Amino acid sequence: MNRSTVQATYQLSDQVLSDYDTWVRHDETKPDERQYDDADLVYLQTIAALYTMGFTAAEVATYLQFDERNQRTTEQRLGLLTRKRKERLAEIHQCESQVAAIDYLRFHLNDQNKGAENDG
User: Is 53 helix (H, G, I), strand (E, B) or coil?
Assistant: First the structure.
């Protein structure tokens, strides 16, 4: 498949395709002339998933540097995923705290408003 077919079929961004060509394929072919096969799709889907998870370009490159066929790098890849998971959970907890503070203020304002109506 050519680049435009892969991009349209799998809804991949230019960023994902360009990063793959640079980091994995080391391809000097013009983008319009490149051909992608099933093995390429595995990498492309991994790159897209990592970006969706919130990985930076540098983190994606690091993840891809670890040889997936090498058991010794499984721990390193799991470590990257675990760290990103903890980061995302910390962000979620921060948002939950913010929502709780908003809810408290809303409750307080509603309570004051009801008191003012009863006094009036």
Answer: coil
Q: Residues 51, 28, 4, CA angle at the centre, nearest 5°?
A: 55
- Domain 1-65 adopts which CATH fold? Multidrug-efflux Transporter Regulator; Chain: A; Domain 2 (1.10.1660)
Q: CA 110: distance to chain centroid?
A: 39
* DSSP character at residue 26: -
Residues of the chain by 3-state class (helix, strand, coil), percent to 5: 80, 0, 20
pLDDT digits (tens, 9 = 90+) for 65-92: 887 667 778 889 999 999 999 999 999 9
